[in-house]
From TrEMBL:
Its EC number is 5.1.3.2. It comes from Notodromas monacha. GO terms for cellular component: cytosol. GO terms for molecular function: UDP-glucose 4-epimerase activity. This is UDP-glucose 4-epimerase.
Length: 212
């Protein structure tokens, strides 16, 4: 927004709230257009795209907790796969497309550290499977329909604006490591449980992507 781009945010607020919009306005001194909409609601999306098209789309909207996806897999397939499929049907109106994929598409890797040439493996969870399906759809959408697209396979991303006004603020108990860790450090959660016996961080993400 600070570079003069016009932004429209679509979210169903299932894991976010209105305060983020006020914070964006405070930071940029501009109001972001916001549309409360669920991507699984095809009719609502059709109404939305009747009057709009974009130079680019960054697709973040998904359920994202691996453990929760083991308990309610169909909710994950519905939200993540159907939501993305509905969106991609608007083709050229989306412009260049960035998909938030996940390191889960590598499954249990043959070798560490993982790089982009590592083969995709069967996912360890329904959540991971929704990201593999998303990548498959995206590839066909881009190659066969001629759109510009990229999938970014995030590991444990974290970020906040230097003002502290926006950052990781999930609704309820965080389903990802880093917000859980920061909430524990801030005293909101009592402790952070580390699973397993092997605490090496051999995939190198923290050094390669963040500290470098
Ligand atoms: N945070 C991580 O560690 C991590 C790791 C790998 C990949 N990812 C992926 O990155 C993306 C963003 O992650 P995040 O941590 O910012 O998640 P987040 O939950 O903070 O943000 C996702 C947003 O999408 C919205 N949403 C969910 N389903 C929707 C739907 N059907 N329609 C409209 N809005 C919907 C939620 O309300 C939320 O605001 C997700 O696709 C996630 O799978 C995240």
């Amino acid at each position: 927004m600070n570079h003069g781009h016009e932004i429209v945010i679509i979210d169903n607020l299932s894991n976010s709230d209105w305060h983020a919009l006020d914070a964006i306005q405070e930071i940029t001194q501009k109001k972001a257009a916001f549309v409360a909409l669920d991507l699984t609601d095809k009719q609502a999306l059709t109404d939305f795209f009747k009057t709009r098209s974009f130079g680019g789309t960054i697709h973040f909207a998904a359920f994202k907790a691996v453990g929760e996806s083991m308990k309610c897999p169909m909710a994950y397939y519905r939200n993540n796969v159907l939501g993305m499929m509905n969106l991609l049907e608007f083709g050229d109106q989306l412009g260049s497309f960035i998909f938030s994929s996940s390191c889960t598409v590598y499954g249990l890797p043959d070798a560490l550290p993982i790089d982009e040439t590592a083969p995709l493996k069967p996912s360890e969870s329904p959540y991971g499977e929704t990201k593999r399906m998303g990548e498959a759809m995206l590839k066909d959408w881009a190659v066969l329909e001629g759109h510009r697209a990229i999938a970014l396979r995030y590991f444990n991303p974290v970020g906040a604006h230097p003002s502290g006004l926006i950052g990781e603020k999930p609704v309820g108990v965080p389903g990802n490591l880093l917000p859980y860790l920061t909430q524990t450090a801030a005293g909101i959660r009592e402790s952070l449980r580390v699973f397993g016996q092997d605490y090496d961080t051999r995939d190198g993400t923290c050094i390669r992507d963040y500290i470098d």
